[in-house]
Amino acid sequence: MNITYKTTINKFNLLKRKTNNFTKIDYKLFLEDISYITIFRTITGYTINKFARKIGIAYPWIYNLENKKSKLGEKGAKNIANQTYKLFNALNLINNVNEEDLQLNYKSLNNIKIESNIDLENLSKKDFKEFLEIFIILEKDTKNFKYFPSSLLLQDSRIILPVRLILGLTQKEFAKEAEISNMTVEELENGYRKIKWMETTRRYAEKIEQVMKKKYVKINEKELKQRWQKWKNTRKTKAKNILNWKRIREMNTNDFLKYLKIIKKESKNFTKITPDLFQQNPQAIMIFRILIGLTQKNLERKLNILGKVNVYNYENLNYTLSRGNAELFANFFKKEIKNTSEEEALNTFLHVKESMFSYRKGALNNLKKIPLNEQEKKIINELKKEGKIIKNLKIHENFDTGKGITNIDFIINNNDPIFIEATKFYDIKSKKFASNWKQRIFLLDYRFSKIKKKLPQSKAFIVIELENNPQLEYRIKKFIKEQTIAIDDIFINSEFERLNKVILGEIN
What we know:
55% of the residues lie in helices and 7% in strands. The protein is α/β, with parallel strands linked by helices and 508 residues long. It has four domains: 5-109, 434 Repressor (Amino-terminal Domain) (Orthogonal Bundle); 124-232, no CATH class; 253-361; 374-503, Trna Endonuclease, Chain: A, domain 1 (3-Layer(aba) Sandwich). Strand 3 and strand 4 form a beta hairpin.
């Protein structure tokens, strides 16, 4: 039966009075007006099929009654009234029905768009002040996070996201506490799935309410902001090297001016520096920092992120840039950037490039001054036994691969140079060790492969010190043999004593 919204509200209020807020459902109501079946069903939020199953009556009969294709007798009216009362009792609707829920159910059942009073569009692009407004509305609607009305979910399922952020839960933790699948939580949070029926909404709302009662602890604005920023720093946009910009080391003045023009255009001559600009093209960081005369490390110091965020990795597209960090860069450069002439910009570019190169060179030179550790001292003592070796030995030496300078523990300058790296594997019983030792070997292999591109006849050795573990030694040797391309030999623990013979070619 097609009943208008106005008629539905009028009949609902009439029913509420006649049933004393649904504490008594008299069968004579249905004999008086068969359309009351539709009102009762709308209150529950069920479709005709669902309502019929819930009250245990055949679907065609309920459908025909609602559409006035069948007549209802006293016996049938008593059955419907009795079953409807049982359903209302099971759904906790007796003495607990309000007009707001009815409105939402009517719209849901009639496919009418439901507007939310909380703006959840582009949540990751909102600032904390806007999120704080959402918090204040939620605090009021949920009676200080002790009650979760199903209407919140029906209006916009994405409300789950701010709720769990306020509770301080990860997506996985929230799903576990609410006994909802991870995928469902993810889809609801991102708006991929919409909840249409009140029955489903009510079920989820009850679960969320239980989580709130269990997990909510009153928080101050500072704690809320920390949770908000932590979440924003996980929101990432994968950058694509569409522009194929050079790194500053390979960049010349023409390249710099070309990139500068692109940035000026994208930022509307530096008047619109937005987080989107940096998320879409993290290499823009490089141009902005050059304009204010900062190296990568100096920028990290200015932002107080030294050791936490690596600008180099963003500029070279090694890492994706989170929304939170994109905002950090945008806010900083907004304050610092001034419109300068091309001549001034070029001078700054040359100064920064020189500063960065000097910093890199100085850092590598400092490595040469680091004292030898115990493992390296043992290797030196062994190498000293052979005069031919020790006279050609260089310790903690820098080597220019042609694609950057790398520092090597030991270099023996024979006709075919030998490069030796010494390392220790600690805490082999830890859970992380299984992946860590492989990663370290891969990094050493990568370093040696760059050297061998320049010196194909050179040899590369690794000396490893670890706890006595024959099985692990076997695994490491097998891994290096099968998975690496540039490592020629490996010496584990006391095996370094054969190092001299291998260097002199006395044994393979």
